[in-house]
Every structure is written in structure tokens, then in C-alpha cells.
Amino acid sequence: MLQNLGLTYPQYLALMVLWEHDGATVNEIGERLYLDSGTLTPLLRRLDEAGLIRRTPKETDQRAVENWLTAAGRALEKRSVPIPRDLLCRLELPMPTFVRMRSDMRQLLERLTRLVGDGHE
């Protein structure tokens, strides 16, 4: 599904964050996706080179980089609308099972994040 859009899965996830919150910084995207800046920066650079986003220093903090969708990045959002539905259909899981599993995964991620944040690395 993503090959038709010319995206990798991590690129698609980063774009999903930007479709919800255009102009998000690397740190904001990383918090949403549980990825560090070392992983995100090259990925965002490739999206910039592909003309899907524009990376600019944040006005209030030149160390932070904001990521803005281009017209091409916005157009890709429209083309990607069927992906979540198609993926869910391919999973062949009953909706209550999917919802429960998603909730369980979120709880696991939150607990792991707290453990790492508490210095239990």
C-alpha cells in the first residue's frame, strides 16, 4: 500500500503526525512515535528531499527544527486516506479484538516510557 505512495512505513508515520499537527518539531514527532531524533532526522531529511515537507529552524529556538508539509505532502494525505481501513481489513481481526490489542499496546508503551524515564534503562 505504501509503495504506491513512494513511502516507507516510518515515513508514513511521520507524515501522519504532520497531517495532524503541521509544523511539529523533531522532538514533538519523536514523542508521538517513540523515536529519537537520531532516527527521525535522516527520515525527515529524505521527506524534505522528496519535496513532501519543508524543514525550517524554529523562530523562538534556532536549535529546534519545525517540519511543514508542502502542497505535495498535503496531496499525499488525500491519497493515503484508504490505508488504515484497508490495513484493518487485511488484519482480519474482529473490531473489539483490535481495539483491545491497541489499548494494551498503548499501555505497554506508556509503562516502558516511564521505566526508561525513571532511569531503569
In short:
This protein is 63% helix and 12% strand. It is α+β, with helices and mostly antiparallel strands and 121 residues long. It has 2 domains: 1-80, Winged helix-like DNA-binding domain superfamily/Winged helix DNA-binding domain (Arc Repressor Mutant, subunit A); 84-121.
Helix segment count? 6
Q: H/E series, N to C?
A: HHHEEHHH
- The percent range for strand residues is 5-15%
CATH architecture of the largest domain: Orthogonal Bundle
Number of strands: 2
| Overall number of structural domains | 2
Largest sheet: 2 strands, antiparallel
Helix fraction bin:
55-70%
What best-fitting shape do the alpha-carbon axes yield? flat
The strands making up the biggest β-sheet line up spatially as 1-2
* Low-confidence runs of at least 5 consecutive residues: none
Rg from C-alpha positions? 16 Å
Structural class: alpha+beta
CATH fold descriptor of the largest domain? Arc Repressor Mutant, subunit A
What is the CA–CA distance across the termini?
36 Å
Q: What is the C-level CATH assignment of the largest domain?
A: Mainly Alpha
Q: Could you state the CATH homologous superfamily of the largest domain?
A: Winged helix-like DNA-binding domain superfamily/Winged helix DNA-binding domain
Mean pLDDT across the residues is: 91
